[in-house]
Amino acid sequence: MSSLPKCPKCNSEYTYEDGSLLICPECAHEWTMNDSGVENNEDELIVKDSNGNILSDGDSVTVIKDLKVKGCSSSIKKGTKVKNIRLVEGDHNIDCKIDGFGAMQLKSEFVKKA
């Protein structure tokens, strides 16, 4: 029995071969035998703004349309500049603080890099 490498994503030992791919049944991650020795860059989060520019932690962005805020009678106006963003996983992938609103999450499709 050959010893297959552990999953590089979740470190599971239950990997199996399917043709030229190695597959993890726990997290459904797929990779090739050539990639197993090299750390994959899939852990790196890539977020793009509405124009296709790649965003990174600490960037400043500008809101491109009025955004309604749940539980608040006012909205975030178009042109509002948001400084020092932080990228997170999920549907709303920008974590930030907006003056007058506090901490919140935004979708990257509604901002552009400043």
UniProtKB/TrEMBL annotation:
Coiled coil: none annotated. GO terms for molecular function: hydrolase activity. Residues 47-114 form the Protein YjdM C-terminal domain. Transmembrane segments: none annotated. This is Protein YjdM. InterPro entries: YjdM, YjdM_C, YjdM_N. Residues 3-32 form the Protein YjdM N-terminal domain. Keywords: Hydrolase. Belongs to the YjdM family. NCBIfam families: phnA (TIGR00686). The lineage of its organism: Bacteria, Bacillati, Bacillota, Clostridia, Eubacteriales.
